[in-house]
Amino acid sequence: MMGSDPSSANFEVKVHPRRDATSQRHMSSPSDPPAVNDRNFSLFRRWLPWLVPTFVGANIVLFILTILGKMGALEVDKVVHRHQVWRLFSCIWLHGGVVHVLANMLSLVFIGIRLEQEFGFVRIGFLYVISGFGGSLLSALFIPESISVGASGALFGLLGGMLSELFINWTIYANKLAALLTLIVIVVINLAVGILPHVDNFAHIGGFVSGFLLGFIFLIRPQFKWVSSRYNRKSSSGPAGPPVKYKHKPYQYVLWVISFVLLIAWLVTGLVLLLRSVNLNDHCSWCHYLSCVPTSKWSCKAQQFYCESIQMGNQLNITCLSNRKSEIFPLSRTSSTDAQQQICSQLCN
Prior knowledge:
single chain, three-stranded antiparallel beta sheet
């Protein structure tokens, strides 16, 4: 067997430098900004949604309870004369039928859960409840003779908050115009549905305006450069750039202050006007078209109800002639014709 002497062989050894994570970081350009997708900021905390599912459950449970008896529907006469202001809040948890509650709860799930994931249960909870109060307030000022229930005002408040959140956090969005046009189309379609009869569009408008102002207050984000610099310092996974001094941009502070002042002014003024029994239709001859536009297919005139009343001492027994439902009221509550007509409408409804 023939072989070769290992001591006489020539060996060539090539050594490649190790490319660790540190060298990889120095090779990448520090000026390249991180890719950002709309509403998918890994730098922001993601919340576990539990408040919105709780709201859904509360609406369904209270809807079942209202089948058994009358509870906290919005009745302006009771708000003004019996000082039951809590009805402006309680009515947003009640509904007038199975279709009504299912439609509102599906909307709440699709809109509310995503907002709660991004901003947490505290801010979305306040946004939902205060927007519902604002919707009830505007409804009571323009439609004082009706009985109103439903979470639509609060739902429109969430839509208004989404729109204002886009404006106040404008710089952190990539597809700004697409997001803006999508929201505007959704809002316009839903408000257009409100001009149909038997739909309380004033609650929608009041809730949307309140939510729009609240969005500037509750849904403000710090500017992306400030969050990114803090993230890099904590993770130490990249070159530390110069720290950003201001957490928010000047326009965000301006919008926050203006919205806060307008919101407080609207809610306080509206509540004072309501408790003074002011009907805003007397000061705006065309505003009723915002809630219902008459066509050849339907009429916006209120249905006429007829009742008979029998005085019994200091009480008045009022009976609706269409459904024979009757109740006894003190004369102090039925001293005026308007009060009797409102009671008759409630009994016949």
